[in-house]
Amino acid sequence: MNVRRPHISGIALAAVTAVGIGTLTACSSDSSAAGNTDKFDVVASFYPMAFLAEQIGGGHVKVTSLTEPGQEPHDLEISARQRAQLEDSDAALYLKGLQPSVDEAIGQSGLDTKIDAATLTELEDHGAVEHDHEGEEAHSEESPSEEEEHALDPHVWLDPVKYAEIAKGVGAAFEKADPDHAADYKKNTEALVKRLGALNTEFANGLKDTRSKVFFTNHSAFGYLAERYGLTQEAITGVDPDSEPSPARMKELQQEAKADGVTTVFYETLVSDKTAKTLADDAGLKTDVLDPLEGITDKSKGDDYFGVMEANLAALKTALGAK
Q1: How far apart are CA 115 and CA 318, in angstroms?
Q2: Would you give the DSSP letter of residue 210?
Q3: Which residues of 169-180 are buried (b: 16+ CB within 10 A; e: fewer)?
Q4: Rounded to a whole number, what is the distance in angstroms from the first to the last CA of the chain?
Q5: What confidence category does residue 236 fall into, taking pLDDT thresholds of 50, 70 and 90?
């Protein structure tokens, strides 16, 4: 389509997406596909945002992901070619705060329709910043900055309720940007929100009666999910999956595993499992996958968002001793 739409005041286009091959029928991981089609061309930052765009847009949209399948989205650096593709598209859907390179490129683009998912729900601070307990005395006079101390957690798509809130905002943005197909966008949004509501009920019922409420993860991606279902996430590292934990943090987790009856250390598909397996070996725990759904690959335990979330629920029920 590549037609400049009227500016959508008050709505920032939000989405982050790494599209899985064969997962989204109208999505494309080939970044050369953006723009100049007879459809509503949407550039999405990584998989969760691409999935929303595809589900809501249906046959009226052409979705292109800035993050390739299997690429860790936190590490994405936007190329000059991708910047040009943004300019050729009708809309951008991203999640501000997750990928700084994407934030910058979309902010500098001339697009009229920029949907920031972070504006469509409330982001929270889940205390994701890990303090290095070793050396605290040596650095006692250097307290972390307020920004470091209170960094907002971007992983809202792992809470079906918040993901549904974002879906409603994206649907409304699509309706305004492409009014010729507004009725279909509205219908598709309602169907997606209904499915997410059913998923939320399934999680709530499956996790309400468990032997333990504490689970260990490789990085701090599951704060919203834990809060929604009355669980406690203990992350080896913070929001950055590539950061290294301190020896004091590893020892602390070993002790907590014994105290809280933790059986499993979860790792994910797009980053190294070395640290998780080290902790599991030292503490005599099992390991399993809990997927933060930042991208779909052939290693994913599901073909799309719903399939992977179902696998996550099954893994949590096993690890927590659901009754």
Answers
A1: 37
A2: B
A3: bbbbbbbbbbee
A4: 52
A5: confident
